[in-house]
Amino acid sequence: MNDVWIILIGALVACSCSLVGCFLVLRKMSMIGDAISHSVLPGIVIAFLVSGSRDSLFMMMGAAAIGLITVFLIQMFHQSGVQSDASIGVVFTALFAVGVVLVSLYTRQVDLDLDCVLYGEIAYAPWNTIAIGGMSIGPKAVWGVGATFLLNLIVISLFYKQFKICSFDPAMAAAVGIPVMLFHYLLMALVSFTTVASFESVGAILVVGMLIVPAATAYLLTDKLSVMISISMLIGIISSVLGYYMAYVYDASIAGCMITVAGILFLLALFFSPTHGVVMKKRKRKKMMTQI
Fold first, then answer.
1. How many CB atoms lie within 10 A of CB 240?
2. What is the number of domains present in the chain?
3. Which residue spans traverse the membrane (predicted)?
4. How far apart are CA 11 and CA 239, in angstroms?
């Protein structure tokens, strides 16, 4: 049964990340998920110091707050003239460093280290269950990540047209009266919640990988956003299933194998995509040269 739970958790993380990851790829902000997953460390430590508890609810609240601050600082620096990638690098390294200092100063006597607060392990997620009335209703990760997936699905479904226009042509969106910055921060909030809700159970590597790789693969396979989102979710689910069995065969990291499978699928799309594949482009170029 644990096998099913692990695959289900991986698939839910993949689908949740794919919904927002496609918009990040289109906006050329793919590494924002990596930035958030590292910069939330001081929020986790501060939440522990204030509450005196390692309860995941307090941790998530602190991490989500710092995640939103991270997004705000990145946008503020970018609007001040700093390049987008430089803004991301400066903010997440600075906040991560502050978190490392806080961990080393205030949590020496507590089981709260970088591995504990930042890098989860999906193999252990099925054992952390929720019980109601003495009866287990499943792993906490399934409910947490499932709720995040449902939230992303509802918000993006309600404002799909606005997100789409803002991603492809922000100037046009502003011209027709769409509050571009509002939807930018709404999307970044979804990314922050998705990252924070997922990495406690499955680890930062799996979250960041699922935010970027399936969406980038789907980008190579279609030019239609709705199809891109669907393909991205499908690739994420396939990566979760095949990655788990690959980890079982080779006795390797489950999260690492899932992202490895996603990377292999990306390479296949890169070379053999009907529209953007390297092989197809060479064939078209050769055919054109022959005709000339």
1. 28
2. 1
3. 6-26, 31-50, 56-74, 86-106, 141-160, 172-196, 202-221, 228-247, 253-279
4. 8
Nearest to 73 by CA among 192, 210, 162: 192
CA distances 260 to 20, 96, 168, 240, 256, Å, are 21, 26, 30, 10, 6
What pLDDT tens digit does each residue of the chain (292 aa) get? 678 888 999 999 999 999 999 999 998 888 887 788 778 778 877 877 787 766 666 777 787 788 888 888 888 888 888 887 788 888 888 988 888 888 777 766 555 555 555 556 677 777 878 777 777 778 888 888 899 999 999 999 999 999 999 988 888 999 999 999 899 888 988 888 888 777 766 777 788 889 999 999 999 999 899 999 999 999 999 999 999 999 989 988 888 899 999 999 999 999 988 877 888 878 778 777 777 7
| Cα-based distances in Å from 120 to 79, 236, 260 | 34, 19, 18
**By C-alpha distance, which of 148, 132, 135, 106 is closest to 15?**
148
CB 44 within 8 A of CB 54: no
pTM score of the predicted model: 0.85
The rounded distance, in Å, linking the Cα atoms of 56 and 80 is 36
First to last CA, the chain: 61
Strands 129-132 and 135-139: antiparallel
Residue 174's domain is classified under what CATH number? 1.10.3470.10
Residue type, 263: G
Contact indicator for 187, 179 with CB cutoff of 8 Å: no
Hey, which residues does 131 pair with through a beta bridge? 136
* DSSP state, residue 120: -
Domain range spanning residue 123?
Answer: 2-291
Structure tokens at 99: 């978190």
Instruction: Say how many C-beta atoms besides its own lie within 10 A of residue 284's C-beta.
Output: 12
